[in-house]
Specification:
The chain is α/β, with parallel strands linked by helices. The chain has 12 helices and 8 strands.
Length: 257
């Protein structure tokens, strides 16, 4: 058995737009509800959700039955956590709060076996289909998407430096935290935030580096993708559930006499 092709990684390398969904409800049943929707990628969040390895496994299994690539955001750039996620067979990782070139290189190293990295070697695990993927050790590096997240003004200002790091496949801008660093808390759509992000993203695009982000506005998500962003998440499962519940109740109450 050969290592499967990472369709998300293949797409962003080829310049094809990838529409995503944030998944933070932390349960396989919820993941199974959204997995068949047809998104190109989904972000399974461990940073701002009650997700742990056991609950994440069920979500990975739900998305494995779909055409959506499940990217995982660990709670930190921790090589021990990354090792365990890689053994679980995650197709890609989004590393939060990367502040320096050194931190980005450490993220890449955590995903690679020696001598190119520091990942520990397991023989039989979900990542290699319990020993059945015969080219796993040579091919996993080519089929795992490594994305880094810039979440401060200082990180955005040095964005171009991250584009030169071997092994970084995409750079993700976190508007909420960037805004907080600018003193604009809780307003990720504020124009001042995007005046900082969009020129930095353009420089990365010109260097051939795929860029991504998360927004909760469908129109703006499409605008960013049409402007050259490679992978954009346009909402979250928790947000859809909360807003759907609110809108349904308001709709019924609005018709009462």
């Amino acid at each position: 058995m050969k290592h499967p092709t990472n369709t998300f990684l293949q797409a962003i390398r080829a310049g094809r737009q990838q529409v995503g969904l944030w998944v933070s409800l932390s349960h396989a049943y919820a993941a199974e509800a959204v997995a068949p929707a047809g998104y190109d990628w989904a972000l399974l969040d461990m940073e701002h959700s009650p997700n742990e390895l056991g609950s994440l496994l069920g979500q990975l299994q739900a998305f494995a039955a779909s055409d959506t690539t499940a990217i995982v955001r660990p709670d930190w750039n921790d090589p021990v956590k990354v090792k365990r996620l890689m053994d679980l067979g995650v197709p890609g990782l989004l590393f939060p709060m990367v502040q320096s070139v050194e931190e980005a290189r450490a993220a890449v190293a955590a995903c690679r076996y020696p001598p190119r990295g520091v990942r520990g070697v397991a023989g039989t695990m979900r990542g290699n289909r319990f020993g059945r993927i015969t080219d796993y050790y040579t091919e996993v590096e080519n089929q795992t998407a490594i994305l880094i997240q810039l979440e401060t003004v200082a990180a955005v200002e040095q964005a171009a430096a991250f584009a030169d790091i071997d092994g970084v496949d995409g750079i993700f801008f976190g508007p909420a935290d960037i805004g907080a660093d600018m003193g604009i808390l809780g307003k990720p759509m504020d124009p001042e935030i995007w005046k900082l992000i969009r020129p930095a993203a353009r420089k990365l695009m010109e260097r051939g580096m795929p860029v991504g982000t998360l927004v909760s506005d469908a129109g703006f998500a499409a605008e960013l993708l049409n402007d050259g962003f490679s992978f954009v998440a346009c909402g979250s499962d928790a947000g859809l559930l909360a807003k759907g519940a609110d809108n349904l109740l308001a709709s019924v109450r609005g018709k009462l006499i």
